[in-house]
Structure formats: C-alpha cells, structure tokens
User: Fold these one by one.
Assistant:
Number 1:
Amino acid sequence: MRNRFLSIVVLGASLLASGASIAQPPNPLDAIPDKMPFDVPYGAPITLDHAQVAINAAIAEAKKRGWKMNVAVLDSGGNLVAFNRMDNAQLASIDIAIHKGRAAVKYRRETKIFENLLQVNQLHYLMTLDDVIASRGGIPLVVDGKMIGAIGCSGGTGSQDEVVCKAGAAVVK
C-alpha cells in the first residue's frame, strides 16, 4: 500500500513538472501595433439638418423592408442630436439605439467590432469597459476624415439594425 501511494505521488509530481514545460501559445492581446487603431480625429459636431437626413434615409430603408426601428444620431461628443421611433417599434430599443450610437462615437468604430470580439474572439474583458455595446447597429459618421457623430439603430435583429444604419450613414457627406 505504501509503495502504491509513493508511486502515485511520484507520478503526479512528474506530470506537474512535465506540464510546466509545455510552451503556451502567445497571447494575441500582447501584440503591439505600429499605429493606433481606429485613430479617426473628432470633428465638428453633425448639424441637426444632416442628422435628420441620415434618419430619413434609415427610416426609408426600414419602411421599404417592413421593419419597425428606432434611429438615433449623436454628435462627435456623444450627445443626442436627433431621434425617431417608428410606430410600434420596440420600446427597449429606444435606449439601445442611443447606446449604439454613443459607443460608435466614443470608441470610433462600428459596434459590430465589439460583437465580433466578444462572440467570436471570446474577449470577455470588453464587458468591463464603460459604454460598450456588443451588438451591431452603431456606425460612426465620418466626413472629410473626421468623425462628426454616429448613427445607432435598434428594433430588429443585429443584422437588420446594421442594414438600416448603413443606409443612414451612406447619405452623410
């Protein structure tokens, strides 16, 4: 019995020692890019007229497809400029549309990127960052290389929200 116990202890110790010598794959988060990602400078805030043009284009796309959406346009400081809730659009999506737009402005990227990083790449630390929303449908509005705001859409699936947002973003020049 004593020899068997001693054998188990020796075997366990050798397994622990051999496991420590196995090389770990490099952590992709340790990579250091040469340039800052998403380094789009903030510009003058979008005007109400331009925000309304973006909303009208987004709403036209949603109507064409028979989708009920909430659409928000925020300025380059993350402040709400204009909002539209289509008849019978989901109430919870009011705040979600605004949140998507705010995240797109603050982080200078589409919210689809957060969705991919969380769901595909399993980068759960994103959930600890303020104002992140890991759902597509938030798109920065960039004119002449400067971010003037963002559009956020919610009410359908993420892919539906994204289609409507892209329609709104496409008319901002």
Number 2:
Amino acid sequence: MDPQRIGTLASLCRYPVKSMAGEELAAARVTFAGLIGDRVHAFVDENNKSSFPWMTARQAHDWLLFRPRFLEPPTIEQEIPCADRYAVEVVSPQGEKFTVGDANFTQFLEQRYSRPLRFRFSERSMTDGAPVSVIGFATIRALSEETGLALDPRRFRANFYVRWERDEPFFEDQLVGRAVRIGEKVTIQFVKKDIRCVMITLDPDTAAPSPIVLEKVTHQHDRCTGVYAAVLREGVVRAGDPVYLA
C-alpha cells in the first residue's frame, strides 16, 4: 500500500547563530541532532543564571537583525563536516562585518548590549525543545487573519514550512505522536507543540514588536504554534519534497 501523502515541504531554513537571522535553503542534510549547521553558534549571557541562559532577541530585539552566513557552507554530501565548514561571517544591522567566534565580535556585542557574553560552538544544534521545528503555512495564514497583520513566516523561525494537502490551520497539531517521512528517506516524529515567546511578535526585517501576535496565540491557541519533532531517520531533504505519513 502506498504511503499517504499529506503535504509538501515548501521551504526549509536554518539559523547559523542562535536567535539571529536565518537563511532559506534549497536542501539540507538532517541528522539526529537536526539540520547540519542549524544553531551551531550561540552566546551565553553570563548574568543570566536561569535554565535558559542564551542571549537572544528576547533581551535585545535588534539581535534578530544580525545576518550570519557560512563562509564555506557544509554540503549535503558531508555527513560529518569538518570544523572549518562552520566558519560564519555576520553583518550587523549597521553593515559592519565580523567573524563569529572572534574576540572582537564578542566584545562588540558586550559593549552594544552592556552585559558579559560567552561564545559557544557546538556541532550539535543548540535548539530549545527538539532537533527540528515545523509549521504549516495554513497556520500562519490563520494567525494573520486573527491578528489583522500580514505575518511573515520568518517570524516563527521554523526549520520546515509545510503546505498541507488539507490546507487546514494547525493541522500539524493533530500529528503530535505521529511520524512522517519527508522525501525519500528522512523520517521525523512530532513530539510536542511549540510553546511561544516574544520572538514571534518581532518583525524579521525591523525587529519592531507587535504584541497582538503573542496575545492571540496565548489566548486562542494555548500559547502554541507549530510543533517540535525528533529525527528518526537521517538523510537529505529538499524544498518541494512530498511529506507522507510514515
């Protein structure tokens, strides 16, 4: 019996530096730790003694406007890239260029945000809840209608953006506990809904906040949009890949 097709992977994104701008990809290798190159660089706020010590756009909205890019991006053929494939250049909102991990960039950020920061690198993605995040375009459309705003999908900082065959808002919520296959090989299992924070209120181009977005998500959707997923089978995914129930 042929598997049931339930959607199409319309676009995929990774975020080289945690909480900074992301990049849309044509294809990516997916490992048990997530997309290769996703959130491999991060900064720890040394004044933050909580269980979530990361420096993010929650504390400083314009952090979101820093634009990182890999100097030599890890390729889909490399299952375990060498360390130099993770070198990243970042452009500040004012156009200054830095190399992530260099002491002068860390010092620049410390002075800009008036707090001590510690740079961290990991080949494993430093994600918040699970290796991969997924949201449906129908969900974003519905939230746009609820808020009266034309919401840019980038607000939701997902790895996988899906067009469901049923075109039903929040359809991904119904798949929690289920496994899906993307393309020929990659299999993920939806494990829980994605609890949201102030990040979704920020415009990805200006960092201007629209509090109504989180208000609607909180009061009408239990503060959740999109889902987190674990990776059950590694491989390569491409934009346009079909999505099947596994």
Number 3:
Amino acid sequence: MTPHAAIGRRALLLGLAMSVVLSKPVPAGADSAVADFIQDLSNAAITELQFGPEATDIDRAVRLKPYLEKYFDMPGIAKYMLGAYWPRATAQEQEDFTKALTDFLSLAYAKRFASYNGHELTVGRVRDEGDGRATVFTKVKLPNGEPARVEWIVKTEPQPYRISDVRVEGLSLAETHRQEFASLISNNGGKVGALIEALRKKTGM
C-alpha cells in the first residue's frame, strides 16, 4: 500500500468512526466520563451531520469544522504537527497554520460522510495514561464486515476533554501528517508559510 493510499484508508476509518452509532456500553470499571465524551462526538455526528445527495464536499466540511473545533485540541495538534518548525514560526504563522489545518482536516474527513454513515463502533476499555491523557479503545465495523481498531487519545487535563490524536490500526494520524508537513516545509526552504499556502490551495476555504 502506498503512503497516500494508507493515509486515505486511515482518513476513511476516522470518518467512519466519527459517523457511527456506539453499539456497546463501556465495561464496568472503565473511565466512563472519557468514554462518554467519545460517545457524545459519535452521537452528534450521526444525528447532526446528515447530508442530502446534493451536498458538496465543501458543504460537508463547513458543517464538520465546528465539531473539530469543539472535540479536538486543534491548537495542540497544530503545534505537534509542525514539530521543530512551531517555535520558528511567527505568532501569526502559528495562528494561520492552525486555521488552515482545521480547514484541511475538515475537508479531508468530510468527504467520508458522503457514503459512510451508521456503521457500528464498539467501545472497549479506557486506559489512563497518567499524564493528563487517556486512550479510548474502539473497533469500527467496516462496510465489508471486518473490524478495524481505532484508538482515541483524549487530553483529560485541563478540562474540557479534547482529542489530541487518533490511531487507526496502530498508526497515528497526527504523526503521519507531521512527517508529510515537515517534508513539504523542508522542500520549500524551511518556510512555514509555504505549508500554509499549500493547505489553503487544497481546501479553497
């Protein structure tokens, strides 16, 4: 599988995970508050992000963006994805990148809502990582009936809870984009502005 195909598969699975109905309660003894947070995201997506056949990718992205802003730690994710380039960026570039990244992810994941809704997601255990984070282990039932592992990394301190990363089949979406973005910046003389412009061109938002 090529890198782009792998990214596409993980994005598809994340889109599925955000648009499913949770099918099982959290096991006794698990951190139900963190699991409920993931359930709230899923329930909101399946009930409020319904689209007719006339909806465009941009229409879906515009509707999805507030959910990324509400449930995901977008400033923290942006900082992580820029890596060593974050402290080199100006305050304005950091702000612009966070906005461009949110638009980029909104469009990337909104495309998955065109065809995939209502699939089953089963919540397993919740693991406290001990550093203000917890991992919620889930399984998403694919259209072909096979299960796929999706792990939600939730920032629990300070509250409110926010998702800081998603691992699909063991692969981190944040890490994947971090490597992709670092390569683009490096190929453009270390200029963060080049990445921001590239993301804006991809989204048109």
Number 4:
Amino acid sequence: MTDTLLEAADEVRLARTIEAGLFATELLSRADFSFARADELTQLQADGLDAWQQFLLSNVRLVQALAFQVARRCDSTVDELFQEGFLGLADAVQRWDFRAGYRFSTYAVQWIRRRVLNASASLSVSGPGSARTVQRARLVRSLDEQLSARLQRVATDAELAEQVGRSADWVGRMRQLQSWVPLEPDLVAVELDEPQQGGEVLRLLASLPWVEREVVRRRFGIGGGAALHQRAAAEALGLSLSTLRRHEARALRRLRTWLQDDLAA
C-alpha cells in the first residue's frame, strides 16, 4: 500500500475544475450565456461534479487514518468516527483555496480532525443534564437540516431560533454541540488506501442494492449532484429519515467489507 494521495498539480487542477463548475452552475441558474453557450456551461458543470467526486474519493484515506488515530485514544470505534470525518473532508474540499500555496491534505486534516474529535466527545457526555442537552442538540440539528434544505442554504441562528422559540445565542450553543450527538451505532466506513481505489469504490457501488446505492450517491455527492443533508436525501428518495439512516449504514458496511476483502486477496 502507498501513502501517496493526489499530486500537488492534480489538486490544483481538480480545484480549478470544481471552481469553474460552480461558476457555470451559477451562470446557468441565471440563464446568463454571455461567457459561454449553454452546452459549454453544462459541460463545465459536469466536469466540476466529476472533479469533486475524484477529489473526495482520493482523500478518504485521510479520514480513515485520523479515525484510527482518535479511536485508539478513546472508547469510540473507527466505525463510529468515520462518517463525521468524511463530512469534514467534504467541508475541506469546499473551503480549500488552492491559491494559498499549501497542500490540500495539510488544510483538510484540521477539518477532519475537528469532526472526528467532536464525534468522539459524544460518547463521554455525562452528568444529570447531559441527556437533555444531547436531546436538544439533536432537535436543533434536525430542524437545521430541514430548514437549510428548504432555504437551499445554511439557516442562520436567528432563523432557527424562531422555529424553536429560543434565543439566537442558545441556538448557537446547540449548533456547536450538534456534531457531539451520538452517531448511529452501526455506521461504518469505506476504506481507501490508494487514490486509484476511488474507481474501485464506484465499481463496488454498482453492486449495492438500488436504494443503498442511491442513498450513498445522494449523501456524498458521488456520481453527480451535490452532497445532501440526511433530511434532504430522504425527501429526494421518498424515505423516512430513520429508513435512510439504516440504508446508509448497511451500504457503508458492505462497501468497507468488500474493500477489505479485496485488499486481503
């Protein structure tokens, strides 16, 4: 196995392609064809989605490594920590500025580690008020996903405060705790040890039952389209939130098992 991720030049190339795709998407939404024809913008948009997918899959090894690192120091398992770390990776891909001159992995580690550490902290919440606090944080997270999906942007603290009848400051505190809410106990990870294995994941995805495959595609933006919150993905597929979570857990478990079997072969 190799420790090599994307080369620096590949990172910049993919980041530029993602940026161009986002710009094309914005122009298409405004029907603004002053820069390029509609078909050219559509192609740039598709190329951007492909670049996003390649960037994401080629860096999953970072998530796995940090999940292992944190799991060794706490009572959490790698399976419990991976999903939040993967979302941290997606955050990093969205936020990384390739013009700053540093490697993506250097930047991504902080986002992944923060997500993983917050997830591990959920298992150590204790005390007479902790159960109620976790329940409230879970409620805010659920409302956050619903409202953000409806608005097609991240909801503000003030907007969420109106929904729950609390102050914006209180909502802000609960949102900081959102990622501390315990994960589903059977959530598992897809393990990639080489960037070339991004293609292997796509091959294995095709072997999943249809609904599990679609859940993974919608949740993580694989195969085209933006990554969706669980609530938005459930609505898009006509599933309840709890059903989507079960399918997501099963799909990730299958993928990780298959990848481990291939590596051991």
